[in-house]
Amino acid sequence: KPEQPEKPEQPEQPNQPEQPEQPEGPQPNQPEQPEQPEQPEQPEGPVKPEQPNHLSNRGTRKTRDTSKT
User: Fold this and answer.
1) CA–CA separation, 50 vs 41, rounded Å?
2) Cα dihedral angle (47, 56, 53, 55), rounded to 10 degrees?
3) Model confidence pLDDT, tens digit, residues 48-64
4) Where is this region: Disordered (predicted)?
5) How far, in whole angstroms, is CA 44 from its chain's centroid?
């Protein structure tokens, strides 16, 4: 069979025009949304008596420490 002529390479599709990046730095000032007024902390259910320090630490600090050690 005669070799099939190579198909001409398709020219790469022209890049779609990049969307202009939003300029870094101050963007056109959007009116800042007023922060929602802080809601007073709602006590979780019945107010728990304060836990003695070492207990509450166990949840947060201790776990971090173990990863350090």
Assistant:
1) 16
2) 110
3) 666 555 555 555 555 56
4) 1-69
5) 28
